[in-house]
Amino acid sequence: MRYVLAFDTATEHVAIGLAALEAPDRMPRMMAEKDFAAPRAALGALLPAVRDVVREAGIPAGRIAIVAVGRGPGSFTGVRIGVASAKGLAHGLGAPLVGLGTLDAVAWRFSAHEGLLAVVGDAMRGEVYPALFRCSGGRCTRLEEDCVEKPVVTAERWARTVTEPVLLAGNGLTKYQGILAGALGARATIADESLWTPSGASLIAAAWTEAGPGSLHSVAGLDPVSAFEEAHPAILLPVYTRLSDAEEAEQQRGAVSIPPSGVSGPGAGGVS
């Protein structure tokens, strides 16, 4: 049996999931998961927690065939910790590395919901990462691309375009629930706060439903060599949606050229 290990540290919450790859056309079966709050502590907490999850499941590390990681958007430091740790772990295991959206992982906590779902991530700097999803028949389908904007802009846009009941979730609600729910009025319902961040199971589900080359679904049916080539750990890039404070400062000084992706360095373009 082969296994996929997934984790996300893009919020101040660490989520880890371990699942069995039983068939290339079937969603992996959950074996173990763990999630816990780790404000400013993910760097030291993540890998020990991954080790514990794998050990408690009784699975040799060598049986982990694929690593999946939340690429964001979220906390810049959190995204970097998760992606860097995943790259190192995948390289060490000789396993392909696939990505998933952090907001998508939150959305998949509501796979049993029927209707519109709005996930609002905290982007700091007085901004949010908003995205709408349609949940139906046990699936969550993304309706909007990742972006970053002021919560009042999101609120005004959704007040104009959302014409049906909508369930709100995401850690951005901690600060901006009043603005968003106020604009939507009776259309808005707030999800339980315990569901505002990813879980291990929602990470696996979000990763499985990613589409295209280099996705979990794409590489699950490949032989190990082909899978590693298609989803090599060096290929995966984080999703930032904007520049970091340091990158903006460097750009203003003209010291470096930063591509619109917010990821600097060779081959940095192409973040979606």
Keywords, separated by commas or semicolons:
2 domains; five-stranded mixed β-sheet; 9 helices; Nucleotidyltransferase, domain 5; globular; disordered C terminus; 34% helix; 272 residues; alpha/beta
How would you describe this structure to a colleague?
The protein has nine helices and ten strands. With 272 residues, it is of the alpha/beta class. It folds into two domains: 2-103 and 198-253, ATPase, nucleotide binding domain (Nucleotidyltransferase, domain 5, 2-Layer Sandwich), CATH 3.30.420; 109-195, Nucleotidyltransferase, domain 5 (2-Layer Sandwich). Strands 3-2-1-4-5 form a five-stranded mixed beta sheet, sandwiched between helices. A five-stranded mixed beta sheet has the order 8-7-6-9-10. It is globular, with a radius of gyration of 18 Å. The chain starts with a strand and ends in a 19-residue tail after the last helix.
Task: Tell me the layout of helices and strands.
Layout: E1 2-8, E2 13-21, E3 29-37, H1 42-56, E4 64-70, H2 76-93, E5 97-100, H3 102-107, E6 115-124, E7 127-136, E8 139-142, H4 151-161, E9 166-169, H5 173-184, E10 188-190, H6 200-209, H7 216-219, H8 224-230, H9 245-253
Parallel strand pairs: 1-4, 4-5, 6-9, 9-10
Antiparallel strand pairs: 1-2, 2-3, 6-7, 7-8
Helix pairs in contact: 1-2, 4-5
